[in-house]
Structure formats: C-alpha cells, structure tokens
Amino acid sequence: MEMTRRDVLRLIGVSAGVAAGLTALGACSQEPSAGLVSGAGEGTARTGGTVRLAFVGSGAMESLNPFAAYSPADLARSLVLFDRLFVMQDGKPTGSLAVSAKPAPDAMSFELTLREGVRWHDGTPLTAADVVYSFRQLPANPLFASELAPQLDIAGISATAERTVRVPTLRPLGFPAEVLASAAMTVVKDGATAFGPGSLVGTGAYRLAGFEPGKQARLTRNDEYWGGPPKADELVVLSIDDPQTRANAVEGGQADYASDIPFVLARAGARGDNVEIRTAGDGQRTGYGFILNTTKPLLADARVRKALRLTVDRKSLVDRVFLGYGTPGNDLFGRGTQYYADDIAAPNRDIDRARALLSEAGAAGAPLVVRSGEYETGLNSSTELFVEQLRAIGLDAKAEIVPPTAYFDPAGITAADALAFPLGPFPLSLIYNRASAFPSLAFRDPELEAAMATAASTVEETERARAWRTAQQVMADRGNWIVWGFGDVLSLVRKDLVGFQVRESAKYPYLGTVGFRE
After folding, report:
1. 232 versus 411: which is more confidently predicted?
2. Cα(227)–Cα(432) distance, rounded to whole angstroms?
3. What is the pLDDT at residue 15?
4. Rounded Cα distance, 290 and 307, in Å
5. Predicted TM-score (pTM) of this structure
6. pLDDT category, 180, cuts 50, 70, 90?
C-alpha cells in the first residue's frame, strides 16, 4: 500500500494544522510543579454562560464538513454539531446514534439499530436513510474511506426499516461497533452537500451560529438534544496554534480553556488564582516511542531489535522529556484501551547484553538514522537522547531532525531506519491495522498476523481478548516498537469550568457537557 502524507497524519492522529503550528519549547530535568489537577474538574455544571475554548486549528483550511475535520479545533466542533454512530469511552465503544451493531453468525455483515427520538436541528427525525447516505459519502472523503472502505461493502449498504441498516462487509468483522467508533463514523442528513452558516444541519448538542475559518466558531445550545440539553448557552471554539498564546489567552481572561499545553509550560505553573493545569489522567496519556523500519536489513534482524530495546534508558527519557509528567513505557502502544496488556514489562536495561547481540548479528558499528520532527513536543529531544544511547553500544547512530511539515514526507519516512512516533490511547485494532498497512511501519510476523485476524473476525469476547494478548506478546518479544514512555495530556483551565469528557482524544474533549460550576 502506498503511503501518503494524509495516511501518516491519520495513523498518528495529528492534524496538518498541528504539524505546521507547533513550536519547540525545549526541555529540562526539573520535577513537575505541585498542584496538577486530574480529570474534568470537580463539581456539577450549572446552566448558562458562554464558554471560550482554545485549540490548535488549521487556518484557512478549517472546515465544518465532518468528513473533512482533522485539526483539534475542527474535531471539537464536529463532536458537538454532529454525532457519531458509536464513540469510544473508557477505551470501549459506546452507542451514540446507534444503540447496537449486531454481527451476522459468519461476521460478514452486521445490522445497525438506530436510537429512537433523535431529531436533526431542523426538527426532522433521524432515519436509516441518513445513515445509508452518510456511508455513501465515504469514497469521496479519503480521510474516512481509508479506514472503512477496505472493510465495508459500501455499495451494498441498505435501509431495512426506518431505524435499521444492514451493512455487508468485505471481511469478517466480529465487533463492528469498535470499527465504527475507531473510524469516528459520523452521520449527516440525507442529501446534505453544504456545511456552513445557514446550511449546516446536525443532530448534536449545539447548533452553528457563526464561523470564521482559522479564527473561531460560535455554537448555541440545542435544547432539543436527544441526550438532554447541554449546560452552556454558547460555546466559542477558538483556533490558536501557538501553545504559549493559548495559555496567555486563559491567563489573560480571553479564554476559559487551552488544550494541549506542553510540559515546559506546565512546569512553569499556572499564573493566576482562578486557573489550573489539569491532566486528562493516566488512561489518556500519549505513548512516545520509536518504530523500527524492518524493511531495512539491519532492523529485520531480531537480535538488533532486541539490542535496541535493551539499550534505551526509559527513566532518563521520561525525566528529561516529560519533566515528570509521565511514566516509563513497556514497548506497547495503546495503554488505557480495552485489551491492553499493562502487565507485560519492558526489558531491564542491559548494555553488555545489547553489545553482545550486535556483535552476534555482525552489526557493531552499523549506521542507523532516527528521523524526527517536533509535531509533538519532546520528540526531537527524545530522539537526540536515544541516539546518544545507541552510540554507547557501538552503533553509528545519527538523528535526522526535520521541520514538522517535512517529517510527514512519505519518502523520508520510508528511507529512515527508525521514526520517532507518538500514539494516543486508540483501540488496538486501529493501531495495529493502520501500522500494518505500510511496509516501513509494519512488522511482518505470521503469529502476529494470525492473532490480528482472529481478533477482527471472532464474535467471542474471550477469544478476542486472547488474540490481542498474543499480538501484544509478539510485539513485546520481537516486534519493531520501542515505546519508552507515556506522557500526560495537559490543559490550562479556569478552575470553575467542569464537565469535560474524553471520547476520541484528550486533545479535543467532548464539549457537550461542559459548563461553569454551580
């Protein structure tokens, strides 16, 4: 499969706007400041008020089309203007517009049952025709098509009743709700072609009142929302790319919330008595690591991969990159999601054994290039530290540091020996399937591929859990990931702002329940 820039962005879960807008903010080895608050804030939200929230945007490219939403600002808006069929909560799929996705006995189709009582912003009811129409939009929207088109027979999808839809599949899908939640499958109104002020009609908790791409969107409360009226009268979603500017907006009173605050800003502490730094919690941490390119002869050798895992100093990287806002990793992405094997431990650091393995593989002194771009704060510094550690075991390691936008060049990724890579707590099916689609990121192993196939096709929960356990054990034993740490997702928030929910990512939480404390 040919890798495109969009594919890489989709895999990592980061927007073009994020990649273009991030600023490197350096690192130090100090301890985090006291007073870090975990979670959504304490207390119950009252009704009323205007909440202003700052996210990374994508400038003039911003869109209200839910199938084109990619930056955190786009996605935060989309989540409250429209609804998904299923959403991820606590690492598991939960019904939203759909209440069930029942697979056929052979898992080659499934039946969606839609929620009763859902109405569009124009007052008309949600029907199966809306869902069929939404699926039919996938081929024209590569962001979603790349995830669902290889798995669903889109042309064969049909409405079987007012609230039921039959979805034939191209391969067995034992747990279709997870597939739809992972792909953030959104429903638009049958026949919708325009998404802007005066034309956008969703089912979400808020209605569109105004939109200036790259600047802000104004959303007003939908009192008829099927999930119950939201709390705030109005949401103002601000697009501010620079993290320092987002923080300044909250501390200066121009915003109430700033998403995705870098570790170094958090270390400086919140300025003001009415604001605080919050972490989304342990289960929402981002995994930081390196993916080894096993199309390269050096890294196709399991002894070399093992040597690299024995070399990395996880604690040093956590201390110096996360500044204490995180924990060491165990070489597996997906922490915080269902089926994640948290009990699989990382190997203890053993430099002598690493050198011996390199010598055995005839790889002593071999050149190795690690590619990085600062699209996530700390990637470049972690790469430079990792390269230093690799040199200590005799490799001729070099860091290839490129601008964030250049990092996503498919040719550059294909050419590198290893890539600095961050991944949030996405479902294991999404992480493993997306990575396996691209040769330079994939790990080809018969036992791994068999386990992944079983996890996708079985309708038995115990068999699926066992398959994911096997897949993760393979990756930990001989795979091509070095996940050295899990870093907190931090935000700067007005103390009396509560009600945030994490559905897809802590970097763009669900805002339909947000409001000021009673």
Report:
1. 232
2. 33
3. 41
4. 14
5. 0.89
6. very high
